[in-house]
Amino acid sequence: MKNIIKKFIPILTISIVLVSCHADLDQDPIDPDSFTEQDVFANTTEAKGALAKLYASLALTGQNGGDDGSPDISDINQGFSQYTRMLFNLNEITTDHAVVGWGDPGLPDLHGMYWTANNDFTGAMYLRLAQEVSFCNSFITNASALQDAEAQTFIAEARFLRAFAYYNLIDFFGDVPLLTQISTELPTQSSRTEIFDFVESELLDIQNLLPESQANEYGRVDRVAAWALLSRLYLNAEVWTGTSRFDECITFSNEVINSSYSLNTNDANGNGTAYDELFLADNHSNGAQNEFIFTINFDGISSTTYGGTTFLIHAAVGGSMDPAAYGINGGWGGNRITSALVQKFQTNDKRAMWYTDGQSLEISSIPTFTDGYACVKFKNIDSNGVQGNDKRGDFTDPDLAIMRLPEIYLNYAEATLRGGSGNLTTAVDLINQLRTRAFGNTSGNISAANLDLNFVLDERSRELYWEGQRRTDLVRYNYFTSDSYVWPFKGNQPDGTGTDSFRDLFPIPNNTILINPNLTQNPGY
Predict the structure, then answer these.
(1) Helix (H), strand (E) at residue 355
(2) Of 137, 237, 372, 443, which is the most buried if we count CB atoms within 10 A?
(3) What whole-number distance in Å separates Cα of residue 251 and Cα of residue 256?
(4) pLDDT at residue number 119
(5) Closest CA to 334 of 372, 377, 381
(6) Which of 38, 53, 41, 40 has its CA nearest to residue 7?
(7) Residue 459: phi, psi to the nearest 5?
(8) Residues 153-171: pLDDT tens digits?
(9) How many other C-beta atoms are found inside a 10 Å radius of the C-beta of residue 2?
């Protein structure tokens, strides 16, 4: 099944109606007059619709899709508020991977690294994640009355999604309230380490409660997703808690690597690499799904949003580009890449998917779309060149992999080089599997002598660009704010400059601080 959201849209839109976001982690879903909480959790079939809402909260922005005027959260344009769109804004536009030419208030601040605690986009991400925690808490409490095995699987999935939300919260914001049930009291703040420990314990506890590897419906998580998130969590442990956990990163990376997930090598469109299949409209069925561990799924008809891959595709098209070639009806002329990303690629690396006709490599003026190469990684066409389901070209079909197998290969290699108990020969082999696919042959393969931490960071850039991980990687390497590594317009300077280290964290929204005096703002804001 491509999308649990698609199948259960009729249920989720009547099962949970959302209140406008409060500015803390205590947000209580309310019931519509015609459908009570007791109805929603009357049996497993009904509860599955409520489970769909937990997944949908990461994919959609409101009750009916698109920009329908019934948003999940308020005080920001509805289309801007979708999770993966904000993930791109916070983790890619703030880095060497992307710039955006639009002047919406708060958006230029991100690449220029001069955002404040009133920034709409950092604030909306906090609220989106807080809301996901609230929905998960409500679901776990209510579904606990159901005793059958399937309901227990649902609860384990909800606990994963709550842990994933908290993973994001400590990555972006550091110290946040830890809530595991709905409460009317203003929450107090927990430390980043306490939240880290909670996420770790939840994932360890649910790993065997989730379905076996690839045994769940496509679009829903299994136990490998828990292992993959643990791998990611442990890789960042030293930054987030002050204690390195690289051995544990190796352990759970191995669990993922030895599971049934496999690197996609199906070159369905015959262009010499299987890499581009990962980002096409049929990536749920063209072989790409074999390496997708946790996806947020989209459909141009049934789950419409101005975020997701609709945003990634439309916003990257402009200038002399033909929108029809990308399966859409028009470009928004916003996002491009910096020369720093382009220069990381060798000539024959087919992961470098740029449009250069009429585009300059260097960026003189960020608002000018033709300054900077355009990124054509994501397309709303399938492996046969056929447009996605929405033939108008408004909304797109490609699913977005939040975690896929190559990331775990790279986690293993980095943790090994940082002193973990991995094997260097294995690390080289895993990297070379990615590069063999990227080059279409072994010409780009490396030896152990080539493999160091900076190579791994650059390989992460080449493999995972525009997939929402870059800022987190740069923070881990102490490159995000320092002057050790600069890129065009870092620190709001054309040639780039270092900036204050407090920007390794985003601010808790000012409105949140005003509403809840129990919270303390992050330093520097």
Answers:
(1) strand 354-355
(2) 372
(3) 9
(4) 96
(5) 372
(6) 53
(7) -70, -35
(8) 999 999 999 999 999 999 9
(9) 23
